[in-house]
Amino acid sequence: MLLILKLLKDNFKEKNNMQRNFLDSMQPQARNEFKTTAKSVREYAYTEDCNFKCRPAMEDDHFARDNFLEDDTSGLFGILDGHGGGEVAKYCVKSIPDAFDKFYDDNEHNIEKLFQITFSKVDDELRMKGAQDSGSTACVCFVRKENNSVVAHIANLGDTRAIIVRENGVERITVDHKASDPSEIERIQKAGGFVVKDRVSGQLAVTRALGDLALKKEGVSNIPYYRKIPITSNDKYIIMASDGLWDVIDDQGAYEIAKGLKDSQEISKSLVATALKNGSRDNVSVFVLKFN
Fold first, then answer.
1. Is-above-0.85 flag for pTM?
2. Using one digit for the tens of pLDDT, what is the confidence trace for 169-199?
3. ∠ Cα 226 93 79 (to 5°)
4. What's the N-to-C CA distance of the chain in angstroms?
5. Hey, where are the domains in the chain?
6. Contact by Cβ (8 Å): 162, 246
7. Half-sphere exposure of residue 79, counting CA atoms within 13 Å on the CB side?
8. CA 108 to CA 144: how far, in whole Å?
9. DSSP secondary structure string for all residues of 93-161
10. How many CB atoms lie within 10 A of CB 278?
11. Sign of the C-alpha dihedral, residues 211, 221, 98, 30?
């Protein structure tokens, strides 16, 4: 009898281990990218984690185009956070750089306009793809030399945020476009839409995004916030991240983590790990550009 019970117990353990191994194999793996030989910046790193316990699928994505426009002083870097699925974010990985490249020559002296044209073009393409009820936020950084000085041009839609880490502090360099923001609520209402429980038409928590074409007539916009930032010797990193990070770590907290670490990879990995430890319930992705 004891032998039979032991065999049953061993069989039960074996089945549990098989189920655990199967679930582990199905879990999306964290993705890391680290480039120390970048041309447009000193180095860059990207880290993401699906946060499988809370999210069954990864909807964040990114792109890194160092040596952009065949110019080793230029780079285009972006982070995307999809909603309603990851298809729009995935599509934007290629379509944003392609559109930016296509319209660059005619708009190289007006990068704000170039971002607006780029995002409008991508939205037109997404309309053909049928992205009515799915979309993506975006934060894109274009780096280039201007008069022998490095300049970063930042544009964002939604709550994908960027901060700049300096020797003596941190500054937010994007705007969170949320349906809880009074100025965005007013803009939505003027466009003929409405906000219910901090959501556009009771559906979408962000007020600016790519895709979400069914809500464009309700005021959801593809016009990004834009800022031009001359990089000085005091500027160390630009950190771009999805709201999976910012929901549980504020700007100052990210600065406190970054200032004690030696490179962009350590920063991106540490920020993702801390977000998970702090209880983030979303996909987490972090992109770090190092300047000095």
1. yes
2. 999 999 999 999 999 999 999 999 999 999 9
3. 50
4. 71
5. 31-175+225-290
6. no
7. 29
8. 11
9. HHHHHHHHHHHHHHHTT-HHHHHHHHHHHHHHHHHHHT-SS-EEEEEEEEEEEETTEEEEEEEEETT-E
10. 12
11. negative
* 200 bridge partner residues: 195, 204
- Name the band, by pLDDT with cuts 50, 70 and 90, for residue 106: very high
Q: Are 172 and 163 in contact (CB under 8 A)?
A: yes
The pair of structure tokens assigned to 215 is: 């809500």
Closest CA relative to residue 210, chosen from 137, 130, 118 = 137
Helix (H, G, I), strand (E, B) or coil at 19: helix
Number of C-alpha atoms within 13 angstroms, CB side, residue 288? 33
Q: Contact 73/139 with Cβ under 8 angstroms?
A: no
CATH of range 31-175+225-290; options 3.30.470.20, 3.40.190.10, 3.30.9.30, 3.60.40.10:
3.60.40.10
CA dist list (Å): 191 to 26, 140, 232: 44, 26, 40
| Residue type, position 111, single letter | I
35: Cα separation from own chain's centroid: 18
C-alpha count within 13 angstroms, C-beta hemisphere, residue 108: 11
Take residue 285 and report the two structure tokens written for it: 């992705």
